Amino acid sequence: MPIGFIGLGNLGQAICKRLSDVGETLVVYNRNKEKIKDLPYEKADTPRDVLLKCDIVFMCLFDSNAVSHILSGENGLLGEIIEGKTIIDLTTNHYEDVLKFHDAVNSMNGNYLENPVFGSVAPALKGELTVVSSGKTEVFEAVKPLLEKIAKEIFHLEIPASATKMKLINNLCLGSFMATLAECTALAENCNIDKTKALEILGVGGGQSLVLKAKTQKLIDEDFSAHFSNNAINKDLHLLQDLAYNLKLPLYSACVPKELFSKMKMMGKGEEDFSSIYQLFKK
Questions:
Q1: N or C: which end of the chain has fewer CB within 10 A?
Q2: What is the pLDDT of residues 16-25, one digit of tens each?
């Protein structure tokens, strides 16, 4: 039986290609049908049509509003046909909204697995993402062989919303590292140090990280085509701040990166890769 996939943005398309490359047949739906018209997969007219043809459906959407629309909107996934079927939600949701999605799907005898993705286009194409799942253990174990086709590292935190909270915590590291690396790069250039050489030195020094490995060439070439956008990291850091507020905890190190990425969005650069924050520091 084919695998369903809803939401073919940059990451969604990369995951679909990976699944196709390892032999999976796909039925896909994207709200913007023009964007996917040339992709080599069977296209469905509605989310419901995907579920009619597939027992397992991935969702890879921008935020909880988009997920809610796919579940509950016209011709959405919620209904009698969801019984016995599994929804794997790769979206980074709001930590409160994701609890509603668990309840909505499970109350109709479907299976909902909260499964935010760590990583972007490049690791997705190679099946080297990290995924953290929350939901029933039996559901996780049933779909784990499929997750292993897209992810190198797989974790299960059974309590609903735990995976989402962990993804937001992870993206504090991601956003903070990217902002620091961008500023270090620009500062080196202002000291008349060649950018490529500076990044090489940072890569074996204090800047050594997965973030720098992934973004070095983008910083060198100033190619800011999106793998993970400023809009996405900005959204996630706002959700993280909301989580800290709910926990009545301060969140010191997230404040500056959040405002820097908000500035990029305000400048009309929200669709660029989040490494483009370098432009804020470049003289």
A1: C
A2: 999 999 999 9
